[in-house]
Write a structure and sequence with these properties.
By secondary structure, the protein is an alpha/beta fold. Strand 3, helix 3 and strand 4 form a beta-alpha-beta unit. The model has no long low-confidence stretch (mean pLDDT 81).
């Protein structure tokens, strides 16, 4: 059943909407009832619904603002607006916001039921359309990966544009930086590409396969001669032009991996695999780059120098700043753009193995931390070198925090303070008030804490808050402002600064990485 939320500030009317029609008989389940937009938005974030029936004029947050807030989070949700005669013109604005319909009060039973059925039909059509698109994408993916049967293969080959005698084909995989996308951008992006390219195949939400046909005076027979170089240069210029147009007109950043040229669609799966192989260079080159075999063949193969003994020592000594600075320097200063990307992955895997070894040695595997397979997946799923760096900084910070917590050599008063922080981190805690509580000199208590825990009381409190905030960012869809308040930060900008100091990445960027 599809889920419904009813929003109306007058309780009597709210109950009337709930009971005026048989929602369940229509295949709709009323899961939320709210009295204003703010309350409704909070309920929606806990359990999203498919259909919202809301009044226009309400205290705290009105119906149109509620519509905008939910629509910014999910474009699929359907809306029905309720309005009085004196609010009619005001409610008409809702038409521009893609509402299903608006109903004048007093509410007519038959009209409400008809509108609800209309909304349900629209939801079903949208779901079927999405399923068809997904089926189409899965089919293309299967064909390109060589998993289609003979009949399926012939079907997909027949969908590709005809090739003229003097034409040469080229295929490229375009990866879109979702962070640069806004609502409605995808349709404009596809419109530009379909205008420019022979064929655009939408494989994933952020991944496209572009097939271009080039008219050429050259006779193509592969090889590495001057003719081949001219053709590769022409193809690279063409895809670079597409990339630059998307960036200049829409502000959308992409990374394009170009496969080898070909003359027969039968070889498209092989070309696709080569184009996908180029995608791993996004890690070094970043979005805004267009890469083919010619651009990577002269890259060095020298290993990146990593001192595993030094990094291990800093982690076990709980030198958070030292370990983080080491990772920063390693990935930002010592890895050149013209390096071989395989060596970058080898370096990242060495660090992952080192961290896993430390977790095993200090029995941290049972904690709520990434296991080795999670880290490996994170390495190969990182969008760029900055995402890779942020992942390791976050993991090292977690390990050092657990090493602090698990150390049993603390004096009783330090243990009490740590327990109090973990329980009351939301409160205004300070070393001065805790020293007074435990009848100690604040300066002396600070020295003991620093010596035993390995960081100042202020830093420890910040680490605990940021650790809890990190879990909420990754495991809930709550707004970051609300999370900051939840962990005791009244100033969101200050929370951003402290969080980035701890994990090397902002809260918003961390959530984006999780989406990827």
């Amino acid at each position: 059943m599809k889920k419904v939320m009813l929003v109306e500030d007058e309780e009597l009317i709210l109950q009337g909407i709930r009971n005026i029609i048989d929602w369940e008989a229509l295949g709709l389940d009323v899961v939320h009832m709210a009295h204003n937009g703010k309350e409704a938005l909070s309920l929606w974030e806990k359990e999203p619904v498919d259909l919202v029936v809301t009044d226009v004029e309400m205290p705290v947050m009105n119906g149109l603002n509620l519509l905008k807030e939910i629509r910014s989070r999910n474009e699929r949700v359907r809306f029905v607006i309720l309005t009085g005669y004196d609010e009619f013109e005001y409610a008409r604005k809702a038409i521009q916001l893609d509402v299903e319909d608006y109903i004048l009060k007093p509410i007519d039973e038959e009209q409400l039921e008809a509108v609800a059925k209309k909304a349900l039909l629209k939801l079903q059509e949208m779901d079927q359309d999405n399923a068809r698109k997904m089926e189409d994408r899965i089919g293309w993916q299967k064909f390109l990966e060589g998993g289609s049967g003979e009949e399926e293969r012939k079907t997909f080959l027949s969908l590709l544009p005809k090739v003229k005698k003097a034409e040469l084909l080229s295929a490229a995989v375009m990866k879109i930086d979702s962070r640069s996308m806004r609502k409605g951008d995808m349709s404009e992006l596809l419109s530009i590409l379909q205008e420019e390219a022979c064929r655009v195949i939408h494989l994933k939400a952020d991944t496209l396969l572009l097939i271009e046909c080039f008219s050429t005076d050259y006779t193509w027979n592969g090889g590495e001669g001057e003719t081949a170089r001219k053709i590769r240069s022409e193809i690279h210029s063409r895809f670079s032009y597409l990339q630059n147009r998307l960036e200049s007109e829409l502000g959308i950043f992409t990374f394009i991996g170009i496969g080898p040229s070909f003359t027969d669609y039968e070889t498209l799966p092989e070309v696709y695999r080569e184009a996908m192989r180029m995608q791993k260079y996004r890690m070094l080159d970043g979005y805004g780059s267009c890469v083919d075999e010619n651009h990577i063949k002269n890259r060095g193969s020298k290993d990146v120098a990593i001192d595993e003994t030094q990094l291990r020592k800093m982690i076990l000594q709980k030198d958070r700043d030292g370990a983080i600075n080491y990772i920063e320097d390693l990935f930002i200063n010592n890895i050149r753009k013209d390096a071989d990307v395989n060596n970058l992955y080898q370096t990242a895997l060495k660090i992952a193995m080192l961290l896993w070894d430390i977790k095993g040695e200090y029995k941290l595997e049972e904690k709520n931390m990434q296991d080795l397979s999670d880290m490996v997946e994170g390495i190969y799923g990182a969008e760029d070198i900055f995402g890779l760096k942020a992942m390791f900084i976050s993991e090292i910070s977690e390990i050092i925090t657990y090493l602090h917590t698990e150390n049993s050599a603390y004096t009783p008063v330090v243990k009490q303070i740590m327990t109090e922080v973990q329980k009351n981190y939301k409160e205004e805690l300070s070393l001065k008030t805790l020293a007074y509580k435990y009848h100690m000199n604040a300066s002396y208590l600070g020295q003991i804490f620093q010596k035993e825990v390995g960081c100042s009381f202020t830093q420890y409190l910040s680490n605990i808050k940021n650790g809890i905030a990190k879990d909420l960012i990754l495991n809930t869809n709550r707004r970051i402002n609300d999370i900051a308040q939840e962990v005791g930060y009244t100033d969101t900008s200050y929370f951003y600064r402290k969080f980035k100091q701890c994990y090397g990445v902002s809260p918003a960027s961390l959530r984006e990485m999780k989406k990827y």
